[in-house]
Amino acid sequence: MNMPDVNEILGGLKGFQRDAVEHIVDRLHRAPDSSGRFLVADETGLGKSVIARGVIASTIAELQNADHINRIDVVYICSSTDLAKQNLRRLNVTGDPHLGVTSRLTMLALETRRFTSDASLLRKKVNLVSFTPGTSFEMGWQTGSQEERQLLHVLLNGMAIVDATAERASALFFQGGVASVDRFQAGIANMRTALGSGPDPVIQGAFTAAIHESGLQEQFELAREQLRGLDVCPPELRREVNHLTARLRGVLAAAGVESLEPDLVILDEFQRFRHLIDPKSGSAASELAHHLFNYPAAKVLLLSATPYKPYTTVAGDNEDDHYRDFMTTLEFLAGGDGEALERIRNGFRNYRQAVIAGSDGAVEAAELRKSLLPFMSRSERPRLEEGRDLLVRRVVSDVPTPEDLRSYSALQAFARAIDSPVSLDYWKSIPYFASFMEGYRPGERAREQIESGVATPELTSTIGQLRAIQPQAVRNYEQLDYANARLRAFAGETIEKGWWKLLWIPPSMPYLSPGEVYSPFSDGSVTKRLIFSAWSSVPTSVASLLSYEAERRMIEGSALSENTADARRAVSSRLDYVTRDGRAASMSTLMLFWPHPTLAEVGDPLTLLDSDTELMLADDARRRADDRIRSLAGASEQAQPDSVWEAFFSWPGSWPEGVHRRADAAAFWLAGRGGGSKNEENDSGDALKEHARLALTQAGTPRWQEELGVLAIHSPGNIAYRALARICDEVDQELRTSLWRAAARLANGIRSLFNRMDVQFLLDKIYGHHQPYWRSVLQYCADGNLQSVLDEYCFQLKLELAGSGVDANALSQIADRAVEALTLRTSRYNARAADEKFSKIPITVRFALRYGTAVGDAESVRAPEVRNAFNSPFWPFILASTSVGQEGIDFHWWSHSIVHWNLPSNPVDFEQREGRVNRFGGHAVRKNVAVAHGRAALAAVRPGEHPWQNTFDAAVDRPELGEFSPWWIYPGAARVERMIVHFPLSREDAQYERLRDSLTLYRMMLGQPRQEDMMELLKQRGVAEGQVAQLDLRPPRRH
Question: Could you list the residue range(s) of the whole structural domain that residue 336 is in?
């Protein structure tokens, strides 16, 4: 573990971020009147987690010489495991890849041994532990995970088996949903192995004492005795067993808290679990959390752009919730300082009275700032202005079709038959509601009645009349009507414009003129779309229908006519490594995806470009590369080889210098994760090794061949090598080997993309069958400027994962992140047929995906993978979600468009939703910076420089925007897009106007009771935002 270099970490922050860090550290550690608690309420997208990183580094430095502690524990609490995975890496300031622990309080007995290891005389051990409230503080009646129950078994029964029948009875007690008690006992054995010498003694002691004192020990032993000799838990005991298990989990969580010695507790997006900070809530979860907050000398840092219940209308929730929430938060931050709280309350009252009386409130705002700054700060970027930074697009759908209206009538008949209303908004929002009504009361009631045999003839008849997806139509790849006016309008913006032909988003800064496929999209209009809806079925229905139509168009005209798993498996992959009679059958695939450092340098587009402002044609670049190759090869004296692959591998430098030329090593690196070889005869897995052996035996003599130029420029292997090489500051011998390995893995990820069934059919459709498939792959890479795209993507990954320097470990992480995006597992969503069984209709989804579902299901578990893929230039191009739980999640790398499928209920939600894409170095910012400075930066780039770093370095020409430019704001044609799709003459027109007007005034409502009354009064008086002094909570300026 390395001690963090605080100056280096703080030096990487922007001025307003460093001001915040130093103010927070001063308040938490040095101020004599400190409450030990602070809130960072910076506007969404300004890097609160980056500020937290600076606070962690400074805290470690402050505590290294403190005598009262022997280790430094940082506890990070956030609303979801996906947010934890995103931010733990940012918060890790030590460089130790194993530092962060994402756990549950109930499972700390497995981790605490690590907490005290690795300390030395010169430094204290640093621990970074992450929890989510739903799995660590909320026990309820839940029986928890099987690992938790296995740990409870060990804590209650010991590390050794003393009484076999008691052991089995206890296993039966804790079996839960595990299929068999034998399987659960096998898990117990694994748990004992994982615990080594035993559970953490602090946790064991605290747990044992608590269950004795509470009587839980006796209750458990009594239940265990009742289970002796049984094979299953009797139903009459199940409720008691579940209740006891939940209580035991609660005690174990409390014991876990005892094992922690928190020095800094960070609550990220805490408004999602604000009850934890309210001791008056009376909940066990709050009491448990306060054990952490009140640990001697522990500091607490809250992070939230909306640290209170968002502004609501009279029609929404209780109008005083905002005021109560904010005052509860301030009470927590003040830590019992009644005088400070009274000053704050008086400050808000004085400010309100001054503004209502017609004053600008400047004096009162300054006094309020002085009262609040000891406990909180907030930085805001310059406002998004319509027409400058914000593009509002109100897309009005066509009038619903007669079939749409008939489907609404059928839904109402179904609702009457099932005696469960179907909202008009369901029909307006959810395409084919009958196929996606799982989880909604009408659908659940209908299924229950049908399965139990009590469905009425009327219900059966109305189900048959519902508009639903037909299984046979999907099976036959027939075109489906979008069945929804909103979806038709949205599809007109994406699918119908030909987005299905694009395998990646066009680059923000292309090096070459786009080819046939990408030229229609060279206007910079393409950006990924992030859809937010109020209804949980919208993400599934929209993603299913758009993905189905994209795939249908890609395979249309191919030999595949049946949409079944068997038919898909029958399609041959064209980029596998194949052997026949033990010999490599074709070397074209290996040639495409083998990084060749020498040819990569020869074919680097950045060294082929002219200095003028026009984009170079791909053919011109190829001719220049050909000329270089001829010159280097002495082509007049060299006979052209029989095949292009022989020429490719004959060039010197195809293998990292200083590394033994081993076919098995090459095959291992080129296979990436999971291989990807195929043997026609015995599928032995040795095919790739045989290809690599043949490649490495070629003579190291430069020879010209007419297709070497296009391979040097556009082969995925060379593209991957250059993209990764550009983010390295210096490439020594050791890093050069790591670079080749990482490039080989990344190239293999690209191979998996072009090896997909739908992509093969797409390239056939675009380029025809007259040329080998590998040439179509090269042509597509040229047409789509894949080098520009990967350079841009790797630059973003470097900013995220590597900071200032790229070593072998960072290169590996960057390549792995890109490969994970390229190889995202295919999902299948289930629609339902409107038949007597509501039969499942599996639909393959790639082009569009949903994000976030019920906690614990497969889609929830893979949310980080989906987010990673969306934050890449590759599919999915559309991500659909509900608003719930997305605070703090980044979606901005390749998207600057938010689609409000349903309008939010309050203006704060507009900013929260749009804050997902209005963030540091976002897609819109990169587009605008590239348009302004890209061509000049490309012309001036030198070896060892990155074109994107040069472009941002040049973008210092907007001083009026301060330190937010260029990384957060840079004016240009690309803007954050607020897209609202609604029906003609809809009431949503007026609803949007009200929300838009509220946006200009709601920021003045912070800490005010009866917000809507105050806003209405200011509107009536014609008070504009600029006429009233705004509450300035920026930290004191130091830089």
Answer: 310-380+1000-1028
